[in-house]
Design goal:
By secondary structure, this protein is mainly alpha-helical. The protein has helices at 2-21, 37-52, 58-62, 65-77, 83-89, 92-100, 108-120, 124-136, 141-155, 159-165, 183-200, 206-212, 220-232, 235-240, 242-251, 254-265, 272-288, 300-318, 323-330, 371-378, 385-388, 397-400, 418-430, and strands at 338-341, 346-350, 354-359, 365-370, 409-413. α4 (65-77) packs across α6 (92-100) and α8 (124-136) runs antiparallel to α9 (141-155). It is elongated. The N and C termini lie far apart (74 Å).
């Protein structure tokens, strides 16, 4: 028993040891005369290890397309009676080429022979190599079918025979992965197992899970697994691997990110710190990434939720030292349609029929512009500061609050006794009754 445990420990440590050995090219000569014979012997040993036991990402890099073609030519020209002998004679490199053939355009005859040879060489090692390659070329259904077939062949003889083959090891996906029902079921089986292991404490985080099962975190398979995991896991697990979820939002295809975004927006139990991290990335990708078109793939409710969160966040940054102004504006931000920094100090908020201009350094004043008048004045002033502080005398909100149609430019004064009138004016111009021009929303995008 102790010998078996020791063997497992050594096997588990191999990737780390190999990573360290790979830096051997930096070793200094070990002999006093400066020769490198010892280093060369070490390099030769390492090359043999790399050839026989490649890292997952090395298989496709090492095997060139011409090697696959050459192997296919041998397979198709050998007589049927000699096929098994050929199968038994294949080297490690040729087995990698055999697996890569499943990523080629094979004829029916080629496919049948490649499949037959793979079955003849069914071993735990070939199964694991096929799984590692499957990560790279996911979702290759032919290779997935081979994995299902090999798993069945390796386990059909019963637990004792399987144990004698060393298959499946504790860290093999074959212990729980469903290979035989398509890529979706395959991913679902891994996602379910990951949730179970992390929930029970066997693994602390997703990173521990993929490391234990020798999965490549940058592979297409793992990216799709992560997406499915976060779509279905409970809030606690989402929070635990927030860093991975955030990274996925930046790299996954738009339809997947749209679905994951909707799930996050519907989450009601996220702590504020986590919500800030997630929403900031969603805001960046949905509103500010010109290379993506995520907003159009979201529901109108999700679009509104992102927009209003962004408006509140940017207003909070602008008015971080102006609590009265923030509270005043916040009362009607649900009908705000857009926000824009005209420069580092001046902020514009767009509503249905008007624009409010705020100066970061003036906590008690806002400038109200009817949209048409704002569009006219924006191109006339030398700098945005003049929009917040017009040179001419401007009526205050207390002077126009009773009028059916306010002036095109109004000073919204929040100081002292003027505050109550400013609130009544703000509520009025935000109400549905007020419709004194028909400019479309979104004009701030032009500035």
């Amino acid at each position: 028993m102790s010998a078996n445990l020791h063997a497992k420990e050594v096997l588990a440590a191999l990737p780390t040891l190999r990573s360290q050995l790979r830096s051997s090219s930096e070793l200094q000569p070990l002999r006093s005369d400066g020769t490198t014979s010892t280093k060369k012997r070490l390099d030769a040993i390492l090359d043999e290890i790399r050839r026989k036991h490649p890292f997952p990402h090395e298989i496709k890099l090492r095997v060139r397309e011409e090697q696959v073609d050459a192997l296919l030519n041998r397979i198709m020209t050998v007589p049927a009676d000699d096929l098994e002998a050929l199968a038994r004679s294949l080297s490690s490199d040729e087995l990698d080429a055999l697996l890569l053939a499943f990523d080629s355009q094979l004829s029916n005859a080629e496919f049948d022979r490649v499949w037959e040879i793979a079955k003849m060489r069914s071993t735990p090692n070939l199964h694991r190599r096929a799984l590692h390659l499957f990560e790279k070329i996911f979702p290759n259904l032919d290779l997935l079918a081979l994995l299902a077939d090999q798993a069945e062949l390796l386990t059909v003889a019963g637990p004792e025979a399987a144990e004698s083959l060393g298959f499946p090891r504790e860290d093999d996906l074959a212990n729980f992965a469903v290979f035989s029902a398509g890529s979706r079921r395959f991913l679902e089986s891994i996602s379910k197992q990951a949730q179970q292991e992390i929930r029970s404490g066997h693994r602390k985080k997703l990173q521990d899970f993929i490391k234990y099962y020798h999965l490549n975190p940058s592979s297409p398979l793992v990216h799709d697994f992560f997406a499915l995991y976060f779509m279905n896991c409970e809030t606690e697990l989402l929070i635990r691997d927030m860093d991975i979820c955030i990274a996925l939002l930046r790299i996954l295809p738009d339809p997947v990110v749209a679905a994951l975004t909707t799930r996050i927006l519907d989450e009601t139990e996220l702590p504020e710190d986590n919500k800030l991290d997630l929403y900031t990335v969603i805001e960046d990708e949905c509103l500010f990434n010109s290379e993506r078109d995520l907003m159009s793939q979201l529901t109108s409710a999700s679009q509104s939720q992102i927009m209003h969160w962004s408006i509140r966040r940017r207003l909070a940054e602008h008015a971080s030292e102006q609590s009265l102004k923030y509270q005043f504006l916040d009362s009607n931000l649900d009908v705000c349609q857009g926000i824009a920094d005209l420069d580092h100090e001046i902020l514009a908020l767009e509503f249905r029929n008007f624009v409010l201009i705020s100066d970061r350094h003036d906590p008690l004043h806002l400038s109200y512009y009817q949209k048409k008048y704002f569009d006219e004045m924006y191109w006339k002033v030398d700098r945005p500061l003049e929009l917040a502080h017009p040179h001419k005398r401007v009526p205050k909100s207390s002077e126009v609050v009773e009028e059916f149609e306010p002036a095109p430019l109004v000073d919204v004064d929040l100081e002292g006794a003027e505050l109550e009138s400013a609130r009544r004016f703000y509520d009025y111009v935000c109400s549905k009754r007020q419709s004194f021009n028909d400019l479309p929303k979104g004009i701030l995008k032009d500035y």
